[in-house]
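Quick start: read one record
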Amino acid sequence: MVAEVRISGKTIVEEPHKGGRGVAADQVDTDRRLVELSHVITDGMTTLPGWPAPRITEWLTREASRANYAPGTEFQVGRIDMIANTGTYLDTPAHRWADGADLTGTPLDRLADLPGVVVRVPAGTRAVGRLLLAPYDVAGRAVLLHTGWSTHFGTDRYAAPDAPYLTGDGARALVDAGAALVGIDSINIDDMSPASGGERPAHSVLLAAGIPVVEHLTGLDALPPEGFRFTAAPPMLAGMGTFPVRAFAVIG
């Protein structure tokens, strides 16, 4: 309620929207989406029949921790005892070859933010070979074999002799074409039926070429054929060739 207002020494400061964490509102990618591709690890679960199940307990309970801290302050520290081949996990060359790179020797650029491609395996197909892979551009990509077998995870059916797998010739085709990583949503990337005689050609070929393998994926039906980025990075544990991962894809 004044007749006249004059402003001098004016400075205009432009700031991004407060909810944008320093990113202008028009730069936020609202189409970006994360897709979970890992099985949940729970106490007593079965990943591979006959192999030890994980045991998840508490090393420090909230109640016990209260004696160590100020009133109203408490913490929980969990403990897990498990074999490395639990849930959705990564195989590095050291898993198959004594002189191969372990978890610490496998570079991040083979595990994280990889362009991905999904190979849709027709229903009823067991052996994924060179001919089925031929139409796909896999150079420099994470190649994810979508068999649909993950629906049986945690059941006796998951380990059935008719579980889908990658053939040795299919593995050689992926090596020749320059694949960066290969994943599958089946119990094993190799044939585990008695007819295989215990041979593991897909593991042998891929890991000899330094191509990591991710087994026991799930949720691949939610991915587009391509146009996404794939990550499956484990902790840096020296002397170990396999370990569970949080596998996921970024779309958009």
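The chain has a mean pLDDT of 92.
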